Amino acid sequence: MKFQVQKLEVSYTSVVILRIMLSLIFIVASTNHFFNIEKVVGRMENAHMGFLGSLLGTPETVVMLSGIVMVVAGVALLIGFKTRYAAMLLIAVLIPITLTVQVGQMATMGPLFKNVAILGGLLFFSINSNLKIQKQ
Asked: Alpha carbon of 9 to those of 46, 65, 105, 132, 134: distances in Å?
């Protein structure tokens, strides 16, 4: 069975807007990891699957490292620098955060599916790294 390669045209402006809006959640969240570390550590420790975060190191270390990755990759995504790699780094941070803090908490189904939607946006940029402006 052969798959036919199809091209989809999208507005470059819409892709830039998506990239900027998607990056902002990580940049803002990273500030929480730096300036409210006790609160973030507490949320992780009180989460149903919070023990997963401890597998990677002390909770404080994990929160600080994830904050660093989120701000660096978030800014890279914001400005369009190495977009594919920035998206993949953010995916690598988002999945453990989602598994640790969101999964298993029925009260947080909204945030769980928010993270699923964010993951979809990040997958878009990790798959479509060759977005270019076509001159007409």
From this structure: 45, 38, 39, 11, 10
- Residue 87 falls within a domain, yes or no? yes
Of 21, 28, 32, nearest to 125 (Cα)? Answer: 21
For the chain, what is the radius of gyration of the CA atoms?
17
Helices 12-35, 59-79: inter-axial angle, 10-degree rounding: 150
Whole-angstrom distance, CA of residue 135 vs CA of residue 129:
18
Q: Reduced to 3 states, what is the DSSP secondary structure of residue 128?
A: coil
pLDDT digits (tens, 9 = 90+) for 114-132: 888 999 999 999 998 666 6
Q: What's the pTM value of the predicted model, to 2 decimals?
A: 0.82
For residue 127, which amino acid is it? I
Number of domains in the chain: 1
The HSE-up count of residue 83 (CA atoms within 13 Å, CB side) is 22
* Calpha distance 124→52 (Å, rounded): 27
Domain encompassing residue 91: 19-127
